[in-house]
């Protein structure tokens, strides 16, 4: 397909604007779908107009007037619609002597001429208001009118310098001239099976639909195409991974495992023992492991991960443990140090806070194989981190990492076994669609003695009353403030002010504050003090969302709870209820929207991470949950993997059918599909290697 600049009326300057929208070719333009539609059908039912201020009508010109003033020229037209209503349209333009600012309007608004008028009532609250502002107009029966009026008219996401009108004209031209060049990539058999429009029906219909049902049909087809391509790419990636054969093997020696188990001071739950077995079996197989370990907050995923790591170390390999935040990484570091110090296992921590000197030493020791386990944040995936014989990786809170980041860690060595962990599991359809057949282990049981955390939506007075009562019983409390971005100075200031305020409200208690901008050492000290009961209250930003583990803390107050997402609230709350005592989580809100009160209600009603995960998905959309929001890896042009879950389901079924019947896509009817698949996913994703 030709470059966008060759479309009539576009040219190089406008083409550059289209390029800003990632539209390079005519085909890109055809696949740049409208963001919304405006109902401009004649006599469209009124309910279709969301607001009465909007007007789309065919009108006849009754008379016009030009009124020059000192600086402006005013042009007025009196118009009549088919119900004999009269409207007054007014335009103002700067006066100029060089040309008539209303030349075009005067030509089009001749008495008795009929025009399509798109505009707004000046008084948007009154049907009776006859004064209107005209946004666009088209002489009736002009060739242009066809694309701008009389249909569900497309509105596009624009960039400065492009208008909807210009955009529509360009799309209309592209459809007229180049639609026949657009190749059908979906196999005819699948189109027939799913009763979908072909590409030459779907593209005109998605841009200029004549009815809502035509639009839905067109969208469904485009969504299906996107989903099928995406899920096929993942399926092939998965297949490729499964064909790999490890060059190393494991034997269970128990030289480290047994002493580790003994040092725990408790027994594994049945569920933990079962998933450890599943993981060990996987590790002993010739194929590299890709396993997701899901288990609610506090279900004890960490010791499961440590067990697997120890098996790798018993066999002489290195392991890496990646966590999303610095504080969580250091928490894991402390835990592992505690268990493994006496076993002669060397553990190191690498984060962005590690000093240059320390870091250089760590990097060298990793390369020389002097470090058995490296724990860290994103710092672990940097290019200069090299290993001697890395064979096992753990990705904690895997949904907080992008697909590419996980892949990058994995590419640090060949045939790595990978264990990803999460407390907010992905629904099965997604797992199937985006990971092929991901192996999943589930810890469906909490350690004994855990009590559900009572969660209440209360006012500040009541919350602090509970805090006082708990501390007087010898317990400790968290008070959490939202801080959307750890480097956000304003909210950090607000949190600091709150800290000062709390000290005056509760002078009888020892209060400490912890936040992400502090130095690691400082944070560690504050955490250790809290653990040692030297402080009663820990005021924290969401750095404590994951990782902190203080059994004596039995109450958590969350300020501005409306600003937290569901999964975050659930994670946060998991910081209490870790011991034998009853625990409470108290949510304080400021202004709640409907959405945030739905979140608050959900979190007060259930402690089930699986239910919360589902609700979260429903409320927030999938990008964030699949860990791909920032990286934009799952952005579809037409599809929405939650709302279009039926189509996603079809795509997964048909992907499975394709991979079974024509695994390398060699059949003639699959060639256009294969070509598009490679175009989209081979380079950027290194996903596909089709013989
Ligand atoms: P999560 O699954 O949320 O990562 P953790 O691994 O942090 O949970 O474990 C939460 C707490 O439960 C830790 O203090 C851990 O020591 C403790 N724990 C884990 N397994 C057991 C068990 N079987 N019995 C008692 N306590 C356990
Ligand atoms: Mg954890």
Characterization of this structure:
- Among the domains are: 1-36 and 163-182, DNA polymerase, domain 1 (Orthogonal Bundle), CATH 1.10.150; 42-150, Nucleic acid-binding proteins (OB fold (Dihydrolipoamide Acetyltransferase, E2P), Beta Barrel); 454-606, Rossmann fold.
- Helix content is 40%, strand content 18%.
- It is built from 24 helices and 20 strands.
- The strands form four sheets. A seven-stranded parallel β-sheet has the order 10-11-9-12-13-8-14, sandwiched between helices. The protein has a six-stranded parallel β-sheet with strand order 15-20-19-16-18-17, with helices on both faces.
- Helix 13 links the parallel strand 10 (347-350) and strand 11 (373-376).
- The longest helix has 32 residues, at 212-243.
- The protein starts with 10 loop residues before the first helix and ends in a 6-residue tail after the last helix.
- The model is unreliable at 45-50 and 622-632 (pLDDT under 50).
């Amino acid at each position: 397909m030709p470059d966008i600049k060759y479309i009539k009326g576009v040219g190089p300057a406008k083409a550059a604007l289209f390029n800003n929208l990632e539209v390079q070719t005519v085909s890109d333009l055809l696949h740049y779908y409208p963001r919304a539609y405006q109902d401009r059908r004649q006599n469209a039912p009124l309910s279709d107009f969301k607001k009465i201020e909007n007007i789309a009508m065919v009108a006849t010109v009754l008379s016009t007037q030009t009124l020059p003033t000192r600086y402006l020229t005013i042009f007025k037209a009196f118009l009549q619609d088919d119900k004999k209503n009269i409207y007054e349209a007014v335009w103002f333009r700067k006066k100029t002597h060089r040309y008539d600012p209303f030349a075009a309007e005067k030509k089009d608004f001749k008495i008795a001429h009929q025009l399509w008028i798109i505009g707004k009532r000046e008084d948007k609250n009154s049907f009776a208001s006859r004064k209107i502002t005209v946004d666009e107009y088209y002489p009736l029966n002009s060739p242009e009118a066809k694309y701008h009026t009389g249909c569900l008219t497309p509105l596009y996401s624009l960039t400065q310098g492009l208008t909807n009108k210009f955009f529509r004209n360009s799309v209309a031209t592209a459809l007229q001239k180049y639609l026949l060049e657009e190749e059908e990539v979906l196999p005819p058999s699948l189109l027939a099976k799913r009763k979908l429009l072909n590409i030459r029906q779907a593209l005109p219909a998605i841009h200029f639909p004549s009815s809502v049902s035509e639009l839905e049909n067109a969208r469904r087809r485009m969504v299906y195409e996107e989903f099928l391509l995406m899920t096929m790419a993942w399926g092939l990636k998965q297949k490729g991974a499964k064909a790999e054969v490890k060059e190393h093997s494991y034997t269970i020696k128990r030289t480290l495992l047994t002493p580790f188990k003994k040092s725990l001071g408790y027994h594994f739950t049945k569920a933990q023992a079962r998933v450890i077995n599943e993981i060990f079996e996987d590790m002993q197989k010739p194929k590299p492991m890709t396993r997701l370990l899901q288990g609610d907050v506090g279900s004890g995923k960490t010791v499961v991960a440590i067990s697997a790591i120890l098996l790798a170390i018993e066999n002489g390999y290195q392991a890496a443990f990646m966590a999303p935040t610095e504080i969580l990484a250091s928490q894991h570091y402390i835990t592992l140090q505690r268990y493994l110090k006496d076993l002669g296992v060397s553990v190191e921590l690498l984060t962005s806070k590690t000093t240059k000197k320390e870091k250089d030493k760590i990097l060298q020791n990793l390369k020389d194989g002097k470090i058995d386990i490296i724990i860290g944040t994103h710092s672990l995936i940097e290019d200069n981190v090299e290993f001697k014989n890395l064979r096992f990786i753990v990705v904690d809170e895997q949904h907080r990492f992008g697909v590419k980041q996980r892949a990058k860690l994995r590419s640090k060595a060949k045939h790595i076994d990978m264990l990803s962990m999460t407390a907010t599991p992905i629904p099965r359809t997604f797992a199937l669609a985006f990971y092929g057949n991901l192996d999943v282990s589930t810890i469906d049981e909490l350690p004994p003695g855990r009590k559900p955390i009572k969660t209440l939506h209360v006012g500040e007075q009541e919350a602090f009353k509970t805090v006082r009562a708990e501390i007087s019983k010898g317990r400790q409390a968290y008070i959490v403030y939202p801080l959307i971005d750890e480097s956000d100075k304003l909210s950090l200031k607000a949190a600091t002010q709150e800290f000062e305020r709390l000290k005056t409200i509760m002078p009888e208690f020892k209060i400490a504050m912890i936040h992400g901008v502090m130095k690691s050492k400082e944070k560690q000290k504050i955490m250790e003090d809290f653990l040692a009961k030297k402080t009663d209250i820990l005021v924290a930003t969401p750095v404590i969302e994951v990782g902190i583990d203080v059994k004596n803390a039995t109450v958590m107050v969350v300020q501005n709870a409306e600003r937290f997402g569901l999964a975050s609230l659930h994670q946060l709350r998991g910081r209490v209820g870790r011991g034998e005592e009853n625990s409470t989580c108290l949510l304080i809100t400021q202004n709640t929207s409907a959405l945030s009160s739905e979140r608050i209600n959900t979190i007060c009603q259930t402690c089930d991470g699986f239910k919360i995960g589902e609700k979260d998905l429903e409320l927030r959309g999938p990008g964030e949950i699949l860990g791909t929001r920032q990286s934009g890896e799952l952005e579809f042009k037409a599809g929405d993997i939650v709302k279009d879950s039926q189509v996603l389901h079809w795509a997964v079924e048909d992907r499975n059918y394709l991979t079974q019947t024509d695994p390398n896509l060699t059949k003639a009817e699959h060639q256009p599909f294969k070509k598009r698949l490679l175009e989209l996913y081979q380079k950027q994703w290194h996903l596909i290697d089709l013989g």
